[in-house]
Design brief:
single chain, alpha/beta, Glutaredoxin, five-stranded mixed beta sheet, two-stranded antiparallel ribbon, 5 helices
Length: 153
């Protein structure tokens, strides 16, 4: 079950595409858009990441830190970052512990086939570490604007 607004965001520590250690607590006192996506370099995930890239300055202006997370490894994330000139950390969660703690690992269905996968979801986390909004219906082509609007910035 996907976490809902009002709860404290689950703490985590992992690494990013550059091997840097990243903890949610590193961002205490800042607004964080933690976006979960299924897989690097797939069409919809690429559209979403590029929308965030293209609107990165506007998000920064509003004080929003962007963190992407998927089950891919650092090598895959690095390739994705370089190919699309992404300016934000892509967090590694190959064991899916963070994905599961946020409730976004679930059964999905495509063409009648059921499988387990990441639900494309963004958690807006306030300066105190509380989830203030959950975007479950992510619009990949306009995700940055969606974050700004939903947050009321």
């Amino acid at each position: 079950m996907v976490l809902q607004a009002g709860v404290t965001a689950p703490a985590f520590t992992t690494t990013d595409q550059n091997g840097n250690k990243v903890s949610l607590k590193d961002y205490k006192g800042q607004k964080v858009a933690l976006y979960f996506y299924p897989q690097d370099s797939t069409p919809t995930c690429t559209v979403e990441a590029c929308n965030l890239r293209d609107n990165f300055a506007a998000l920064q202006e509003k004080g929003v830190i962007v963190l992407g997370i998927s089950p891919d490894d650092a090598k895959s994330h690095k390739k994705f970052e370089l190919k699309h000139t992404l300016q934000f950390p892509l967090l590694v969660d190959t064991d899916k512990k963070i994905i599961e703690s946020y409730g976004v690992w679930a059964e999905k269905s495509m063409y009648g086939r059921k499988y387990m996968g990441v639900l494309r979801t963004t958690f807006l986390i306030n300066e105190k570490g509380k989830i203030v909004h959950v975007i479950e219906k992510v619009k990949s082509k306009e995700h940055a604007q969606q974050i700004i609007e939903v947050w009321g910035l």
